[in-house]
Amino acid sequence: MIGGLEPEPAAAAEVFGPHIERGRQFTEALARHGEELGLIGPLELPRLWTRHILNSALVSPLLHPGRVGDVGSGAGLPGLVLAIMRPDVSFTLIEPMERRVAWLERQAGELGLSNVEVVRARAEESKLKGALDQVTARAVSALRTLIPVTAPLLRPGGELVLMKGAGVDGEITAAEKAIRKYRVHDAEVIVLGEGVVSEVTRVFRATVG
Ligand SMILES: C[S@@+](CC[C@H](N)C(=O)[O-])C[C@H]1O[C@@H](n2cnc3c(N)ncnc32)[C@H](O)[C@@H]1O
User: Fold this and answer.
1) Residues with Cβ < 8 Å from 103, sequence gap 6 or more?
2) What residues contact residue 85 under an 8 Å CB cut-off, 6+ apart?
3) pLDDT reading at 186 higher than 80
4) Which numeric CATH code is attached to 62-208?
5) What is the number of the ligand 1 atom nearest to the C-alpha of 73?
6) Could you tell me which of 7, 49, 56, 133 has the fewest CB atoms within 10 Å of its CB?
């Protein structure tokens, strides 16, 4: 075991199914290098599986075959985890920081993920306007600022799949103006992982345009 890494929870094999080996490979790589590369804080190792890896993996059933952009992938959460789980989906990981881009490219290569491309850019400066079917993001910013950055990347009728914390209802209220301006509709909060992980995953899912 890598020092301090949470032992693999029983739910991991269930959540990852046939992709568990790659799930383990990525988790171990992140545990080994994440701190020195500034990708995860030292306090995160004891909850890497439950709070980060499984929490990201739980979003997998919300994705459709097509092109998904993950804005602000950082360590690869949720983008690389979802790419492991969904070989039928093409992932574009959008991340401006050079060191993180290098990590994402190296991991995609080492995991043998042919469904991943990495774009070094801020989402709003990328050339991806209108190009994506779904956009994911985790721990990037509050909805009020995240919607203006993510919604323009979607084709008409595309979907936002934004991972959020317990304060999501307040974020939705504060984002009312952006929700109207970017024609975000049919919004719902989906709670995933009850009974599977200690901290459930909340997703703000909505259609744009
Ligand atoms: C707190 S980290 C979260 C990383 C990862 N999603 C996670 O859950 O661990 C936020 C990431 O978003 C990136 N980011 C911030 N603003 C962005 C933008 N406008 N477009 C794309 N990425 C952005 C940062 O470089 C950083 O890697």
Assistant:
1) 33, 37, 39, 75, 76
2) 16, 17, 19, 23, 57, 60
3) yes
4) 3.40.50.150
5) 6
6) 7
Nearest CA to ligand 1 atom 4: 74
Quickly count: other Cβ atoms within 10 Å of residue 115's Cβ. Answer: 17
Q: 157-180 burial, b if ≥16 CB within 10 A, otherwise e?
A: ebbbbbbbeeebeebbeebeebbe
- 17: which 2 tokens? 């199914």
142 is in an annotated binding site: no
Per-residue confidence (pLDDT) for residue 6, from 0 to 100:
84
Q: How many CB atoms lie within 10 A of CB 89?
A: 19
Both structure tokens of 84:
């492991």
The predicted-structure confidence for 25-48, as pLDDT tens digits, reads as follows: 999 999 999 988 999 988 888 899
| Average pLDDT of the residues of the chain | 95
Chain segment 48-59, per-residue pLDDT in tens: 999 999 999 999
* 158 known member of a binding site: no
**Sign of CA pseudo-dihedral 87, 139, 147, 119:** negative
The CB of 74 under 6 Å from ligand 1? The reply is yes
How far apart are alpha carbons 153 and 135 in whole angstroms?
A: 8
Q: CB of 59 within 8 A of CB of 197?
A: no
